[in-house]
Every structure is written in structure tokens, then in C-alpha cells.
Design goal:
Belongs to the thioredoxin family. By secondary structure, this protein is an alpha/beta fold. 28% of the residues lie in helices and 23% in strands. The chain has a five-stranded mixed beta sheet with strand order 3-5-4-6-7.
Length: 141
């Protein structure tokens, strides 16, 4: 399986059966799984969304958005619990307007699951932890 590093965003190959063995990046030696969402930008988005094999769960959010702020702990808890089955990333729609426009984000928070550059699912609005976990189950590898 090809994984993008959350630190240097370089690609590393890891055998499927070794994902839970705390693999490290082949380039920068950082852990490939941190249990925390990564910050997605125009510079690193393609590595995680199109080149890596793990489904990428993206939280499109903004700092001024109340529902985004209330959903943030749910998203972070999911990252801690569900890695390495998924990669979790947050995309600030104010700072990354071109990416938000590319995905036609009209309401926030919007959560999207992307694999191989293709959108597998999309959900608008904040969700409670249980509902979010249930929604993600359909995309489990």
C-alpha cells in the first residue's frame, strides 16, 4: 500500500499487514500515522487524495463557522480511533479557496471521502460522533 507522509508528504510503500505496526516514512523517518488530522493545502492535497492508497477523509471547514468548531473534536477523535484504516485531513476553506471551489463546497462543514482522486462520499453538516463513525463504515477498506 502506498501512503503519503503527514510530515514531508512523500510517498512510502508499506505492506497491508504492516499498517498497524507503526510504520515510518522512508524519506523523513517520521511516523506515517499520528492519530491526528493533517492540514491539507494545495501543496500536499494530491499526495494524500490521489497518489496514496488509503481513503482520505476531508473536513472542509472555516475558523468563523460555529458548527465547524463543534465538529472539530468529533473529527479529531475519529482520526485517533480509525487510523490506519483512513487518513484524516482538514482543509481550511478560507485559506484554500481554490481547492474548496474545485470541490464546489457550498456549506461547511462538509466531509468528503476521497480515494484515488475520486469522491466516494460526501456529507454536509456537523455530525455526532456515533453518526460520523456509522457514515464512515461504508467506506472501510
Amino acid at each position: 500500500m502506498i501512503l503519503a507522509c503527514p510530515q514531508c508528504h512523500g510517498l512510502s510503500r508499506v505492506p497491508d499487514d504492516r499498517l498497524s505496526d507503526a510504520p515510518s516514512c522512508g524519506r523523513c523517518k517520521s511516523p506515517l500515522f499520528t492519530g491526528e488530522p493533517i492540514e491539507l493545502t494545495a501543496a500536499n492535497f494530491e499526495a494524500h487524495a490521489a497518489k496514496a492508497d488509503l481513503p482520505l477523509v476531508v473536513d472542509f471547514w472555516a475558523g468563523w463557522c460555529g458548527p465547524c468548531q463543534s465538529f472539530a473534536p468529533v473529527f479529531s477523535a475519529a482520526a485517533a480511533e480509525l487510523e490506519p484504516g483512513f487518513r484524516f485531513g482538514k482543509l481550511d476553506t478560507e485559506n484554500q479557496q481554490a481547492l474548496a471551489a474545485r470541490f464546489a463546497i457550498r456549506s461547511i462543514p462538509t466531509v468528503m471521502v476521497i480515494k484515488g482522486g475520486k469522491i466516494l462520499g460526501q456529507q454536509a453538516g456537523a455530525m455526532p460522533k456515533q453518526a460520523f463513525a456509522q457514515w464512515l463504515k461504508q467506506f472501510s477498506p
